[in-house]
Amino acid sequence: METLGREEAAVEEAAAIIARGGLVAFPTETVYGLGALGLDPAALEKIFAAKERPHEDPLILHVAEPGWLEELVEEVLSDARELIKRFWPGPLTLVLSKSSKVPGLATANLSTVAVRMPASPIALALLSAVGAPLAAPSANRFSKTSPTTADHVLADLDGRIDAVLDAGPTEVGVESTVIDVRCAGSPLMLRPGGITREEIEAVLDHEVLRMEQVAAPSLSPGLLSHHYSPRARVRLFGLFRGPMPRAMLEVIRSAAAQMSGSVGVLAFDEDLSALRDLPVSVERLGSIEEPRAVARRLFAALRELDAKGSTVIFARLARPDGLGETINDRLRRAAGGKLEPTENE
Ligand code: TXA
Ligand code: MG
């Protein structure tokens, strides 16, 4: 597999590989995606094979300009228009009824298609050079955490894809928000991501529904709770104001005493001093008050703790508003949906 840079010639080469039906991983502003021709079933099959991804998990189509959306969907409804005006290019994926041009392989045979226009200049340059929509799931093996660097892509997919465009770590660090806008006035958030619920509600002037509010778990088949798993077992604690409470520290201390050298902690800056003397590997996420910085670090920090040989990783929830909703969603999935019981202090 070839590693390409961010210069024009590299983008041209990547576009040529994709145009021939190949697979190239490239950076978006959220995470690295694994790009292939989005309307070509043979190219799409290669994505599923390289990632070992089940066909029931639909892909996102990426476009270079909002105008490309027209041929992919039946109709661009008014909520979609409003959101596009405000958030494209950017980390927002819209789910609409698909047109007949979109192969069933891209959408898990659903009647809908997910589309977004990424913001990273290199992704836009690649899309323009190819001149056609690209399917691009996160460039990781199925059920692993999404890659935020070219090294993460190599670790999962080296030997399975044709090339990776390396433009350094991604800016947002978590995937796009996926929102179903087919029902006017009732937008449904299928996956929290880089654009927050509050930002969307401010534009649409409607409440954005949560998955728990609708009884249709098959709406977004890719959202399995074992997604985003590091190798290590993740033990997730609840929300606490201020630094890590003593009860959580005691659980970490006793785990470290029993399994020396293999305990990892995802720590907010506010937790660092309490962890200082414990025999654990600590990865800093940044301040609990700065969710943007935390989101950017989250997946890389999980991978680094795996690489250090942690067999258990301790973490705690962020504040649930804004990007905290997305951070907590990914932490919960990494922990298999379980929260550790804690007494109130
Ligand atoms: O930020 C991102 O969205 C990244 C970058 C590379 O653009 N891509 C990404 O793709 O996260 P992927 O394949 O890892 O996640 C796509 C998810 C699916 O698992 C599913 O939950 C949702 O998007 N999705 C795709 N098509 C859908 C559809 N037609 N209806 C409902 N949900 C859909
Ligand atoms: Mg993914």
Secondary-structure element series: EHEEHEHEEHEHEEEHEHEHEHEH
Give me the secondary-structure category. alpha/beta
What about the largest sheet?
10 strands, mixed
Give the overall pLDDT as a whole number: 94
Uncertain parts: none
Rg computed from alpha carbons, rounded to a whole number of angstroms: 20 Å
Number of helical regions: 10
Give the termini distance in whole angstroms: 53 Å
Q: What small molecules accompany the polymer chains? A: threonylcarbamoyladenylate, magnesium ion
- The coarse overall form would be globular
The percentage helix is 25-40%
Major sheet strand order: 1-8-2-3-7-4-6-5-9-10
- What amount of the residues lies in strands? 15-25%
- Strand tally, please? 14
Your description of this structure?
- This protein is of the alpha/beta class and 345 residues long.
- The chain has 10 helices and 14 strands.
- The chain has helices at 8-19, 41-51, 78-87, 121-130, 150-157, 197-204, 246-258, 272-275, 291-307, 324-334, and strands spanning 2-4, 24-27, 32-37, 60-62, 92-97, 112-116, 134-135, 163-165, 177-180, 188-191, 233-237, 263-268, 281-286, 312-316.
- The strands form 2 sheets. Strands 1-8-2-3-7-4-6-5-9-10 form a 10-stranded mixed beta sheet, sandwiched between helices.
- A hairpin with a 4-residue loop joins β2 (24-27) and β3.
- α1 crosses α4.
- The longest helix has 17 residues, at 291-307.
- It is globular.
- The N and C termini lie far apart (53 Å).
- The mean pLDDT is 94.
- Bound molecules: threonylcarbamoyladenylate and magnesium ion.
- Threonylcarbamoyladenylate is lined by residues 28, 30-31, 33, 57-60, 91, 93, 95, 107, 110, 112-114, 118, 136-138, 175-176, 178, 190-191, 219-220, 222-223.
- Magnesium ion (MG) binds at residues 137-138, 146.
